[in-house]
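Much of the work behind modern protein science is quiet bookkeeping, done one molecule at a time. The protein below has been through that process, and both of its lines are reproduced in full.
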Amino acid sequence: MDKACYQIRVKSHLGPSSTHAFEGFAIQYEDNGDTLLTGLVADQAALHGILMKIRDLGLTLVELKSLTSNFKS
């Protein structure tokens, strides 16, 4: 399966200890207080792992968006 690019929005800005959990993702802090994570995900299992990190860190998932359905790296 080809990698896919995802954009994940969580409520609140991530602290320094939380950013390490999302290594490889571009992290953008938005004016409304949300954090936008953008990056490549290898497969569905990896996506579920990222969602579990969000849960384990006590973050609130606001949005999950696939940016490209046929992204090729």
Observations:
- The domain at 4-66 is CATH 3.30.70.1150 (Alpha-Beta Plaits).
- DSSP finds two helices and four strands in the chain.
- Residues 12 and 70 are 30 Å apart (CA to CA).
